[in-house]
């Protein structure tokens, strides 16, 4: 099983990235976790929406082929959120 993971922070010491990497290592024998490099993604540009850069096409393809999607993002509400 392949889980595509999007970490919503690009901060070097991001807690969410640490969590993603810990999960990737801990569960490597059970399933594969691919962590997206969102730093490479450009800002949304509606002028390029119909013909996006290759990095965007690759990102969308990774989501499409994944068996699951894990979103790790910052929470400023002070509450634990489950989607």
From TrEMBL:
Location of the NADPH-dependent FMN reductase-like domain: 1-71
SUPFAM superfamilies documented for this protein: Flavoproteins
Any Pfam family hit: FMN_red
InterPro entries assigned: Flavoprotein-like_sf, FMN_Rdtase-like_dom, NAD(P)H-dep_reductase
UniProt record similarity statement: Belongs to the azoreductase type 2 family.
Designated name of the protein: NAD(P)H-dependent FMN reductase
Annotated source species: Lederbergia wuyishanensis
């Amino acid at each position: 099983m392949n889980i595509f993971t999007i970490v919503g922070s690009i901060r070097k010491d991001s807690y969410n990235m640490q969590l993603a990497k810990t999960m990737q290592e801990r569960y490597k024998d059970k399933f594969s976790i691919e962590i997206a490099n969102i730093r490479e993604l450009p800002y949304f540009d509606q002028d390029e929406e119909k013909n996006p850069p290759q990095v965007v096409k690759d990102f969308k393809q990774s989501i499409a082929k994944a068996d699951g999607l894990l979103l790790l993002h910052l929470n400023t509400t002070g509450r634990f959120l489950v989607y």
